[in-house]
């Protein structure tokens, strides 16, 4: 009887402890041509520690779900900046490169969210609200834009939920990269600023 009680207590503790599920998102490759025309200025790309450690997490029925996204946000930001500008100097903050660049391109993660379907086949969306700011070397705002990027797939079951989450993450990063490239490349305010720099 004591042995049975011990087994029951141990099982209850294990069930109450729960598990941590880590979703791993592959690095996003830069799909733009490096030899495309660039804005001929030097830009400081500001990637804060907050951006580089950004991620999504959720507690559900005793389990902890974690998706680290900071490295991928940083890679997307580097890709977009290096394709758009002739010279890019990366830093965590502006004081670190003050006086070395013509302007600053500041990337910021404003919000990360994920919806879950009611069943394994239900739709699940992973989305990010991402802000871009372009400032002159004195900190004057030249241009700002907000990108809403999203990746969608099935929610998945106990066997497939990690694969589906990975798919959502990769789709979201590609969407973010494409939208960001389009926004920066077509920003009239940036073009005017570049033309004014001697």
Number of domains: 1
The separation of the N and C termini measures 87 Å
Largest beta sheet: strand ordering = 5-2-6-7-8
Beta-strand content estimate: 35-45%
Reading the helices and strands in chain order gives HEEHEEHEEEEHH
| Helical residues, percent | 25-40%
Runs with pLDDT <50, length 5+? 1-16
CATH class: Alpha Beta
What does this structure look like?
The longest helix is centred in the C-terminal third of the chain and has 25 residues, at 161-185. Helix 3 (70-84) packs parallel to helix 4 (161-185). Helix content is 35%, strand content 37%. The protein has helices spanning 2-17, 49-52, 70-84, 161-185, 188-196; strands spanning 20-23, 39-47, 55-60, 63-68, 85-91, 103-115, 123-136, 141-154. The chain has a single domain, classed as ABC-type transport auxiliary lipoprotein component (Rossmann fold, 3-Layer(aba) Sandwich), CATH 3.40.50. The strands form 2 sheets. A 5-stranded mixed β-sheet has the order 5-2-6-7-8. It has a 3-stranded mixed β-sheet with strand order 1-4-3. By secondary structure, it is of the alpha/beta class. The radius of gyration is 22 Å and the shape is elongated.
Task: Chart the SSEs and their pairings.
Elements: H1 2-17, E1 20-23, E2 39-47, H2 49-52, E3 55-60, E4 63-68, H3 70-84, E5 85-91, E6 103-115, E7 123-136, E8 141-154, H4 161-185, H5 188-196
Parallel strand pairs: 1-4, 2-5, 2-6
Antiparallel strand pairs: 3-4, 6-7, 7-8
